């Protein structure tokens, strides 16, 4: 009996210790014993690594660190593709422009192609874990904050109290994620159209999930995280579709009281009805023409107070309360990769959606379509990478496109043919955020009006006309689906 009693006691102690350890895993550690002062960001990281060495190695496996995961691309098989090497029609390309572009990398010192991705002390822990709200990377600092007073666009950036910021470390907030994701493309809401600074503290009418008046979600509520690997990638940089999030992950498919709405869920994405417009708080850029850069064009403001021209970047168009473009999409898209042939006389699509009306995996989704003009190599007939940033780049070298093209193409291992032009491009960006309150969701007549065409381009979607008026073209049997359409 005594032996049994001893075994029971040991087992109880082991279970108690294990339980205590499990509880501890859910507690944010107290970092108040961090002293400092710190000379720079990597010095802070060195202290973090004393306790979080495993976390660093986990993080270095993720796309937030590599910016170039291996993924399936239509017609090309598995290729390394991501922010590191994808061409876009905003700031165009990372290569040769590293210090400017990598101010949004979760690391320190990516100033050229020699950056060491295997050194954990290059990780920037503070950009995701600062809870003071004061941490800022310098726009041209290759991921570093400033360590001495530094001028930028007429303002002085003062050095930060890195020790105080380190002591505040906690779980990421919307502001942490937004420090990069709200400002992609060089300014607030430039790129996505549904990710912008208003989501830091959005009113309910802007986003029911993130609003303090609603669910007050942090980003991780949907972008669940395991070992620093954050679920969900933007479709533009991740065309393979293997790490995309959907509303139905939480909400399911058949959640409406009316059968007809649940039938729509089979072919219409939740976002289509529940995000009736994007850029509802602040405007988003929808056109960027690099061909006018470097010219003496008057810089005016549009109806939203946004600039229509910048001598460094060219001409812009902005839109607000934008009705999305609707298209079939099965989660996979094709992607233009550097070196692919382009169309100098028409529009080169930087990505293109897979799926159609007859594809059982496809649904109708809302998109922002970004359009513009960007440089290409006339001899090779491929889109070009210009060196924009730095002492020898386009912005500081007398607006010399030839020199910029030669340097940029050399950085990506391609020879510049000696003659450049500008051609139109377009890119799809899926709309996922800014879910409106239920009362603002689309009504039947928004897409199926008694007269006119509504907001859907039915022919572009593969129909002869409004399928509500021309029955029998759905890919699903709709027997009894309309029986409760007029019920309250």
Question: How would you characterize the overall build of this protein?
Answer:
With 488 residues, the chain is an alpha+beta fold. The protein has helices at residues 2-25, 41-59, 63-66, 98-101, 126-129, 162-167, 174-181, 248-251, 259-264, 270-274, 401-411, 444-447; strands at residues 70-73, 77-80, 150-152, 155-157, 225-226, 229-230, 284-289, 309-310, 314-319, 325-329, 333-335, 347-349, 351-353, 363-377, 382-383, 420-430. Strands 7, 8, 9, 10, 12, 14, 15 and 16 form an 8-stranded mixed β-sheet that branches. The termini are far apart.
Shape type: globular
Structural class of the secondary elements? alpha+beta
Given as residue ranges, the uncertain stretches (5+ residues, pLDDT < 50) are 1-25
What's the end-to-end separation, in Å?
70 Å
- Secondary-structure element pattern, one letter each: HHHEEHHEEHHEEHHHEEEEEEEEEHEH
Strand count? 16
How much strand content do the residues show? 15-25%
In short:
The chain has 488 residues and is of the alpha+beta class. The chain has helices at residues 2-25, 41-59, 63-66, 98-101, 126-129, 162-167, 174-181, 248-251, 259-264, 270-274, 401-411, 444-447, and strands at residues 70-73, 77-80, 150-152, 155-157, 225-226, 229-230, 284-289, 309-310, 314-319, 325-329, 333-335, 347-349, 351-353, 363-377, 382-383, 420-430.
Write the layout of secondary structure elements.
Layout (H helix, E strand, L loop, with lengths): L1 H24 L15 H19 L3 H4 L3 E4 L3 E4 L17 H4 L24 H4 L20 E3 L2 E3 L4 H6 L6 H8 L43 E2 L2 E2 L17 H4 L7 H6 L5 H5 L9 E6 L19 E2 L3 E6 L5 E5 L3 E3 L11 E3 L1 E3 L9 E15 L4 E2 L17 H11 L8 E11 L13 H4 L41
